[in-house]
Amino acid sequence: MIASLGVSIAISRFLGTDTSHKRLGKIRSTTQLNAVEFGLLNCVIGRTTFSGTTPFPTENQTKAILDILPPMDYYHSVHAPYRISATSNDPKKLKFSKSNLSATLKTADYLQAKHVTFHAGSFKQAKYDSSHVQSILKEWEEWRQMKDFKAKLAPEVGGKTNSFADFFTLAEVTSGIDNMLMTWDISHDFARGGNITTEDGVLKRLETLDNHFDLHEQNRLPVHFSGMIVGRTGEKYHTLLDHDTGVPWKLVFSVIKEQNFLNKLNLICESKIPKGQEKMLKGNAITDAIRVHEFLSSNELIKVYKGKPSMLDYYFKD
Ligand SMILES: [Zn+2]
Prior knowledge:
The protein is of the alpha/beta class and 318 residues long. The protein has a single domain, classed as TIM Barrel (Alpha-Beta Barrel), CATH 3.20.20.150. The chain is 35% helix and 15% strand. The protein contains nine helices and ten strands. The chain has helices spanning 17-28, 59-68, 91-110, 131-147, 167-175, 186-191, 199-212, 249-258, 285-297; strands at residues 4-10, 35-39, 75-79, 115-118, 152-155, 184-185, 221-225, 227-231, 234-239, 265-269. It has an eight-stranded parallel β-sheet. Helix 3 links the parallel strand 3 (75-79) and strand 4 (115-118). The model is unreliable at 310-318 (pLDDT under 50). The structure holds zinc ion (ZN).
């Protein structure tokens, strides 16, 4: 299969062996999936937070994962903890970010992951200066190469209007740094008002990726998708693909399919049932990923957005 399609799964040292093997086994038994993103989302080193610390998995734990999901069969990637920030000016926070990134990159290399996705941080206001973030990212990239970590860095399109950054800013900043990638989160792009509800808007993004990055089957650009509840300042929370969230996934995947872009991307489903809605909704990241697999394998093409913007509190700009 040219497409690389999978789900994100949270891992930490606290996740018992049985539980984690059960979760990984579910991915293994879903034949439509050939990619997996390991989320170290709540893992942290060097600081006790109010909620306590969740340490990174050990080398042995990460190696055990590879027995169930061998890198021969799966395109592996890692999502770094949310605590990393490149927008801060505080040397202490930047140092803390870098040490967490270091632990993430180490884990990623054990997992033979191709890249590390992370949120670069946010600003107090929607208008911000990206030159500071660019200089921090550049320093981190030089340090990564010096340390000889193999997994590439891939900052993610932010879901809120004040988070770093929108699609085009991020493409400009990351492609200006040798060997860096970026993560295109379709739902975040939509949530912050990016024009991905028209064919033109999606084409403009694919063209930008082609011009800025050297993408191929071994160097895929990470793409996230999920349902998304959106408010005036962007992302509120992730949910399942449908339920009228308006995320134009069929339109986006239609254009990707037509432009033969599937072999340049690594598609990761981040769908989940929001807390408190377990009784109302049915499904999970795996069932949503299977829907996308079915759509990609079909001849169906959707070129016109049929979402219901009037039901949402969102707005659009270029
Ligand atoms: Zn994401």
